[in-house]
């Protein structure tokens, strides 16, 4: 997911595994009520299976990316199983928020507010790149 963004920006992403280092974007899996910089924990709570898949704070609030661990995840969409969400697609979308991008009204954009079912397009379109 990070390679998708680094391919079209001058940004470089590095995996750091030490506990809570000084980073620009911190990613973790969480469930239900969990801590966020942006809002009180209850305001950013996940809803369990279905619904909200992930959320990310904008850079000015820390850029932390949280993925709902209660979801059924697979790397890619599986047209045979509607209850499975694509972790790759969701991470590309959420990293966009961590870089400061808002939702797009273009349904072909990775920044469109929902996955639109079985969208197999994991690439960034013109609107994503030039946002």
Automatic annotation (TrEMBL):
GO molecular function, one term: metalloendopeptidase activity
Free-text remark on how the cofactor is bound: Binds 2 Zn(2+) ions per subunit. Can bind about 5 Ca(2+) ions per subunit.
Superkingdom field: Eukaryota
Entry binding sites for Zn(2+) 2: 93, 97, 103, 111
Pfam families: Peptidase_M10 (PF00413)
Binding residues for Ca(2+) 3: 47-48, 68, 71
Signal peptide: none
Keyword Methyltransferase: no
Alphabetic keyword roster: Calcium, Hydrolase, Metal-binding, Metalloprotease, Protease, Signal, Zinc
One annotated GO biological process: collagen catabolic process
PANTHER family the record matches: MATRIX METALLOPROTEINASE (PTHR10201), MATRIX METALLOPROTEINASE 1, ISOFORM C-RELATED (PTHR10201:SF291)
Similarity-based family: Belongs to the peptidase M10A family.
Name of the protein described by the UniProt record: Peptidase metallopeptidase domain-containing protein
Organism annotation: Medioppia subpectinata
Organism phylogeny: Eukaryota, Metazoa, Ecdysozoa, Arthropoda, Chelicerata
